């Protein structure tokens, strides 16, 4: 209530009341406009949405309340599904329309804190680093593959598109022979002239890719496929030295199943294991246990089999004079020709790597395992050259046009 002493006082009070009401109305209007602005930034009330300019920035909307977020350095926001909050490596996200990124947090061998990056030495084509929170973990692509700067994965040299020493022609030390057009082969195969276990597939007869057979096999030039060593004369003894050394130095008398299987398949004569025993109870021998109960005590006898000399059961070593006399009486047979390169160990099919742990709340995923398997063997999925004649994919090359294979390393 206002008590006016004059007409002027009454007028002043009325104006004050009106101004107060106007202020309240304006405040409500501003609040409404501000609320409308916030709501308009969220396309829908709930979800995750990419920034229109910066590829590693995004927004979370919860009941029309917008919160700005940023991926860890080296990763970008993947907006394929607005219901999923997901940051992927930069090369896995299309940042064409939003190319800006946060300031790099570089360290040694890591241009950014997280991701996969090529080795700084340009001639180290297959070497790269997995960077996890600034820590560089060195990795190497499987044999015959190189690191791709575009995809951050290991690919064939001709797919990597790298230059200099990492150019496909420099990485693969092989040139596809020029075949006549009558050869109906889309992707002919040629034996590696230096290694029995490997061969080259010439994509559309032009681009070579080095492939390998399974452990225990060699490449058969006549069939154009992997085969047992005994069927390829020049590679019949390719694994002999390897298996001989393996079984001679084996500890525990238990060979690895994959190596034992490969040795048998390759035709290698696997040595006998240590002499087995048979346990046979004796009716005349008893032993009293701690509980006072008499029980039969087993008698261990040798198995009924001839004595076997093997890497697991060696005879007593004779002195040098005895050995010399034996060699004079029975000279050893001439040594076989030196083989090309030592065979590769059994291939697991997928290379595994161990990612380092991190204390960040948004750690990058482990290294990818999407590069080609190490056991190449057969390929029927190579792209066909549109200019090439129709042919059977991966067919063998006629033996008359195969390059000669040497039986020893130069």
From TrEMBL:
Alphabetical list of Gene3D superfamilies matching this protein: Chitin binding domain
Pfam families for the chain: CBM_14 (PF01607)
Domain Chitin-binding type-2, residue spans: 39-97, 107-168, 173-237
Region of interest: Disordered: 281-410
Cellular component terms per the entry's GO annotation: extracellular region
PROSITE patterns: CHIT_BIND_II
Region forming the signal peptide: 1-35
Low complexity composition bias: residue spans: 345-362
Entry protein name: Obstructor B
Tagged with keyword Repeat: yes
Top-rank lineage group of the source organism: Eukaryota
UniProt entry keywords in alphabetical sequence: Chitin-binding, Disulfide bond, Glycoprotein, Repeat, Signal
MF GO annotations: chitin binding
Listed InterPro entries: Chitin-bd_dom, Chitin-bd_dom_sf, Chitin_bind-dev_reg
Organism, as annotated: Hirondellea gigas
């Amino acid at each position: 209530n206002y008590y006016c002493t004059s007409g002027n006082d009454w007028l002043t009070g009325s104006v004050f009341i009106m101004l107060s009401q106007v202020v309240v109305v304006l405040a409500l209007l501003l609040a409404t406009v501000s609320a409308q602005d916030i709501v308009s930034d969220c396309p829908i009330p709930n979800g995750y949405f990419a920034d229109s300019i910066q590829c590693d920035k995004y927004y979370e909307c919860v009941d029309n309340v917008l919160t700005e977020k940023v991926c860890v350095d080296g990763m970008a926001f993947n907006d394929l599904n607005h219901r999923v909050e997901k940051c992927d490596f930069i090369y896995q996200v299309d940042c064409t329309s939003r190319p800006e990124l946060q300031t790099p947090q570089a360290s040694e061998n890591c241009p950014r804190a997280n991701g996969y990056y090529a080795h700084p030495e340009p001639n180290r084509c297959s070497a790269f680093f997995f960077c996890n929170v600034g820590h560089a973990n060195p990795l190497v692509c499987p044999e015959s593959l190189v690191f791709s700067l575009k995809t951050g994965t290991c690919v064939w040299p001709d797919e990597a598109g790298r230059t200099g020493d990492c150019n496909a022609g420099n990485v693969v030390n092989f040139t596809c022979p020029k075949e006549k057009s009558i050869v109906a082969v889309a992707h002919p195969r040629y034996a590696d002239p230096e290694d029995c276990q490997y061969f080259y597939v010439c994509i559309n007869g032009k681009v070579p890719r080095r492939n390998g057979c399974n452990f225990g096999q060699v490449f058969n030039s006549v069939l154009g496929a992997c085969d047992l060593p005994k069927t390829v004369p020049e590679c019949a003894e390719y694994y002999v030295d390897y298996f001989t050394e393996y079984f001679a130095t084996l500890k525990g008398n238990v060979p690895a199943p994959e190596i034992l299987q490969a040795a048998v398949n390759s035709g290698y004569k696997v040595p006998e294991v240590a002499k087995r025993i048979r346990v046979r109870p004796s009716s005349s021998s008893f032993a009293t246990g701690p509980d006072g109960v008499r029980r039969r005590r087993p008698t261990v006898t040798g198995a009924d089999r001839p004595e076997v000399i093997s890497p697991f059961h060696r005879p007593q070593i004779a002195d040098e004079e005895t050995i010399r006399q034996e060699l004079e009486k029975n000279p050893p047979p001439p040594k076989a020709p030196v083989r090309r390169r030592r065979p590769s160990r059994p291939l697991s099919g997928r290379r595994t790597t161990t990612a380092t742990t991190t204390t960040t709340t948004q750690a990058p995923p482990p290294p990818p395992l999407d590069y080609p398997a190490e056991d190449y063997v057969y390929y029927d999925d190579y792209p066909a050259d549109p200019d090439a004649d129709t042919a059977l994919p991966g067919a063998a090359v006629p033996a008359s046009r195969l390059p000669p294979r040497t039986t020893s390393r130069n």
